[in-house]
Amino acid sequence: MNKVFKFFKVILICGVIFILFSLCSVIYFGQNVRPQKSDCIIVLGCKVYGTTPSPFLTSRLEHAIELYEQGYGNYIIVSGGQGAGESISEAESMKRYLVSKGIKTNHIIAEDKSMTTMENLSNSKKLMERNNFKTALIVSNKYHLKRASLIALYCKINASYSGVFVKEYKSHEVAGYLREVPALIKFYLQYIYYKFF
């Protein structure tokens, strides 16, 4: 019985260490990545209220506009399908917002089918290939960037990253960091499964 107890104790300790390591990697990556000039900027989707971008999505879009105006990318890919409670796709909502802020329509490419980060990036990769884009700058909340970077690597996207932290919604941001840990673990498990089975 003592051996069984010790075994589960070791497993528990290893699990806690891995969880803490994952959380630290999420925080560190989001804080330390820097954008690089790229062929396009990819804005990952987030909740839309009816037709209006949520505060998190608005912050991502404003950041993308800044990067676009600073010459980090000549085109913006907006990626996100239509979820529950959304009157239009996230991509369409983002496109409308960008146009309202003066971004030329022919500089915006909409990807409106994706429902997950994996789909966001795999579908965006197809649009990049169609438009002969070789590099991308991926924009999301800082807590989201570590997992996005792993998925981008899986999708073979040559990318840099830049994130936002919405100070007015600190509790939501903290929740986002905590949610990323199981999401990150899920990605690792899925990757191992598809790689070896």
Structural write-up:
This protein is of the alpha/beta class and 197 residues long. It has one domain (2-196): Rossmann fold (3-Layer(aba) Sandwich), CATH 3.40.50. Helix content is 55%, strand content 16%. It has six helices and seven strands; from the N terminus they run H-E-E-E-H-E-H-E-H-E-H-E-H. The strands form two sheets. A five-stranded parallel beta sheet has the order 5-4-1-6-7. A two-stranded antiparallel ribbon has the order 2-3. Strand 2 and strand 3 form a beta hairpin. Helix 1 crosses helix 6 (170-196).
Would you summarize the structure shown here?
The chain is built from six helices and seven strands; from the N terminus they run αβββαβαβαβαβα. The protein is of the alpha/beta class. A hairpin with a 2-residue loop joins strand 2 and strand 3 (52-53).
SSE-based structural type: alpha/beta
Q: Tell the overall outline.
A: globular
Query: What is the H/E order?
Result: HEEEHEHEHEHEH
Radius of gyration: 18 Å
| Total of domains | 1
Number of helices: 6
How far is it from the N-terminal to the C-terminal residue, by CA?
A: 34 Å
CATH H-level name... which superfamily? HUPs
User: Which segments are poorly predicted (pLDDT under 50) over 5 or more consecutive residues?
Assistant: none
Q: What is the residue-averaged pLDDT?
A: 93
Largest sheet: 5 strands, parallel
Count of beta strands: 7
Protein topology:
Elements: H1 2-32, E1 40-44, E2 48-49, E3 52-53, H2 55-69, E4 75-79, H3 90-100, E5 108-111, H4 117-130, E6 135-141, H5 145-154, E7 158-164, H6 170-196
Parallel strand pairs: 1-4, 1-6, 4-5, 6-7
Antiparallel strand pairs: 2-3
Helix pairs in contact: 1-6
